[in-house]
Amino acid sequence: MKTKSLNSSTVLLMAVSAAIVVANINYIQPIEADIAQQFNLANAVVGAVAMLTQLGYAFGLLLIVPMGDIMNRRTLIMRLLILAIVSALLAFIAPNIWLYAFASLLIGITSVAPQVIIPYAGYLAPAGQRGRVLGNVLSGLLVGVLLSRTVSGVLASFMPWQWVYLIAAVMIAGLWLVLWRKLPHDPVTTHQTTYREMIRTVPKLVKKYPVLRASAVNGFVLFGVSNIFWATLVFYLQHQYGWGSREAGLFALLGVTGVLAAPLIGRLADQFKPRTIIGVGLILSTLAYIVFGLFAAHVWGLVLGIVILDLGTQFGQVANQTRIQSIDAKASSRFNSVFMFGYFMGGALGSFFGNLFWGLAGWYGVCGLAIVVLVIGFYAHFIHYPHVVRHQATSLNR
């Protein structure tokens, strides 16, 4: 029997940890223009480097995060933080785009500690409070995404952009020291499955649980359209207003609405069907792009659209996490791995194709791309997956 060791201060520590580490993968977005200028690159090339970070994160999710089901999760988290420090330092010293691209890939791979922390929090939380606990930890994750863009953009406006990564390395080192003393010890002390056996079970879990497939597709769509916007915002601000990385970073602060809403969304996911909450996320994200397409030429239009988009992303994130962490606690890390792999594959492709469509068709091309992706999301959620998810109870008993 597991021993519950989760209190409010522990949940707060987990949320702060998720924020600091996940920030690594988003520092590049507001400074893409600065990187392109320093290395004399086309915007699309820098977009490909940003995609490398997201791809690295996705494959870290697929190959590293499942280890949380077969080894001491506290130990895994501490080791990942050390690797994240090394990756950030490599990005800081990179003298050319090739080494920086390699560092960006490593940053993605080694920054998956929050995705071990999230199922760990869900595992330790009482069943009736799982949505609330996950909502609080995920709000920390969103704070990291939010502040990473702001810090990166503002710092790069008055110092070399590389210093962002040195500051990141110092922050993670400080976090490591705190977690060494405060992070709860994993109550599960023995694991019978080897890494190879565990990895082989992942495709079987995807096949067995339709709700897991549905969540992965939904995460792909919602984070994909989020990154389509954030990867191209700095270029739109340059084109429309003559602004730069500082303003792009400051716009990211508007995501505080999603942070504040996350605990409430978690409670809603405990009280209502998570699938209903996910549908709300799709509707909000679509509404955001309608606002971007019609009113982005006005600052208030950008502000309104960002608030709605971040709310839509957060509705989907919290509700999807709540339903996949309720399937089987023994495979919680693998469920999270599959879901977040789909989530960040969407983010990676959103970053790449967002930049590509910006170069081909400008802002309306970016908005059109997002709408097409959202149409796919609506089809999957409202037409395709309702049929297979209704058979979830049968699948669970097989």
Automatic annotation (TrEMBL):
Aminoacyl-tRNA synthetase among keywords: no
Membrane topology summary: Multi-pass membrane protein
Domain Major facilitator superfamily (MFS) profile: 10-389
Keyword annotations from UniProtKB, A to Z: Membrane, Transmembrane, Transmembrane helix, Transport
Domain of life (superkingdom): Bacteria
Pfam families: MFS_1
Membrane-crossing segments per the record: 12-29, 41-64, 76-94, 100-121, 133-151, 163-180, 217-237, 249-269, 276-292, 337-357, 363-382
Subcellular location: Cell membrane
InterPro entries membership: MFS (IPR011701), MFS_dom (IPR020846), MFS_trans_sf (IPR036259)
Entry keyword annotation includes Endoplasmic reticulum: no
Protein name: MFS transporter
